[in-house]
Amino acid sequence: MDNRLVNVSVATVWTSYNSPRDLDVAAISSPADINCWLEGLTYETRLGLCEQNLVQTQLLLGEEVIVVEEKENWAHVIIPSQHSSKNKNGYPGWVPSSQLVKCPLNWNINEGPVVIVKNPKASLLSDSNIELSYQTILPLIQEGEGKVLVRTPTGTGLLNSDEVFIYESKAKRHKGNGADIVADGEEFLNLPYLWGGMSSYGYDCSGFSYSMCKANGYIIPRDAHDQAKAGEKINLEEIKPGDLLFFAYEEGKGSIHHVGIYYGEGKLLHSPNTGKTVEIIPLAGTIYERELCAARRYWVESEA
After folding, report:
1. Residue 108 falls inside a structural domain
2. What is the CATH number of the domain that holds 207?
């Protein structure tokens, strides 16, 4: 086993090394072209990512994985930053080996200052310019006039200062409150749903809640059923904006299949399903009202 870093803007994590279809080539190339991949998908082929159990999750540039085996130019990985009941050490899946690089000795993402992309997308200027997703985290080397110099898995690059947050360390990043989680989620209204999506190119329901919590300094489990077991249990009569709401089959009595963010005023902010986009809807009179079964709070009130 060895640790490696993601070396593409967004790496899609597949269920098996033979999961990708011919039409998925842009997603498994290096560099990956996520825009090209998504533009080539129809409703049916997007739906196939879920119904054929092809995709598990996604990773952003610079995220660390543990490689447990390699087969036919593919790496079987564990993702420590995505907690899961599927594996106690992190989320499992398969990534093209070409999208990973060995972790350089000077990689100090957990100790030194970091830069976090705050815009939906940001341009990394380097030898090969890359469009980065929201919440990509890279080590800071130096601040300059209107630019920041960051370390990448294979070198260095520049980002515009107004597209990022800078923190002394990942551990010292700002922790937002429930209203902040809602406000960040609103930035992605009308973004098309993507099964397994964990980037600003498309989120699935739990990827959306995970990423908006991450944006506010809270790392939560990756999948909805795991998210529903952690955090602070909240009575449904006492929910506040920013709390996560969970929905189950059999009118709330069966297995959990969906999560969204409570918006306030009886409304739900969520990424619904294939063919739809991130939206805010009233719960009253909907299937979601009947299936609502639990609430969890991961945020704390911000310090004055």
Report:
1. no
2. 3.90.1720.10
Name the pTM for this structure. Answer: 0.96
Q: Which residues are catalytic?
A: 205, 258, 270
Give the phi and the psi of residue 220 in degrees, each rounded to 5: -115, 170
Give backbone dihedrals phi and psi of 204, rounded to 5 degrees, phi first: -90, 180
Domain of residue 9, residue span: 2-102
Q: Which of 42, 67, 102 is the last residue of a domain?
A: 102
On the CB side of 279, CA atoms within 13 Å amount to 11
| pLDDT tens track for 38-60 | 999 999 999 999 999 999 999 99
* Tokens coding 3: 């640790």
Q: Are 138 and 207 members of one domain?
A: no
H/E/C letters for each residue in 86-132?
A: CECCCEEEEEEHHHEEECCCCCCCCCCCEEEECCCEEEEECCCCEEE
Q: pLDDT tens for residues 267-290?
A: 999 999 999 999 999 999 999 999
